[in-house]
């Protein structure tokens, strides 16, 4: 049975990846906890083409 590495958080906030079940249990005994799942960031809003002030050619009459 293969172990899937687990992200853990130390009591002081540092992240660590446990590579084995034994290591995971030893870290939990030291106060580490399983890290919450990461969420994907929201995509940036799309740029809107807007005229910039001063872009218009001067008109002469």
* Rg over C-alpha atoms, rounded to the nearest angstrom: 26 Å
Low-confidence stretches: none
Decide which structural class fits the backbone. alpha+beta
User: Roughly what is the average pLDDT, rounded to an integer?
Assistant: 85
**Main beta-sheet strand count, sense and barrel state:** 3 strands, antiparallel
Query: Roughly how much helix do the residues carry, as a percent range?
Result: 10-25%
Give the beta-strand count.
Answer: 3
The neighbouring-strand order within the major sheet is 2-1-3
Distance between the termini: 84 Å
In words, what does this structure look like?
There is one protein chain. With 61 residues, this protein is an alpha+beta fold. It contains one helix and three strands. It has a three-stranded antiparallel beta sheet with strand order 2-1-3, covered by helices on one side. Strand 1 and strand 2 form a beta hairpin. The protein starts with 5 loop residues before the first strand and ends in a 27-residue tail after the last strand. The mean pLDDT is 85.
Keywords, please?
1 helix, 61 residues, alpha+beta, three-stranded antiparallel β-sheet
Task: Annotate the secondary structure layout.
Blueprint: E1 6-9, E2 15-18, H1 21-29, E3 33-34
Antiparallel strand pairs: 1-2, 1-3
């Amino acid at each position: 049975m293969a172990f899937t590495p687990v992200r853990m958080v130390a009591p002081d906030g540092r992240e660590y990846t446990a590579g084995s079940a034994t290591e995971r249990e030893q870290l939990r005994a030291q106060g580490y906890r399983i890290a919450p799942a990461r969420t994907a960031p929201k995509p940036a809003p799309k740029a809107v083409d807007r005229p910039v002030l001063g872009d218009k050619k001067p008109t002469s009459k």
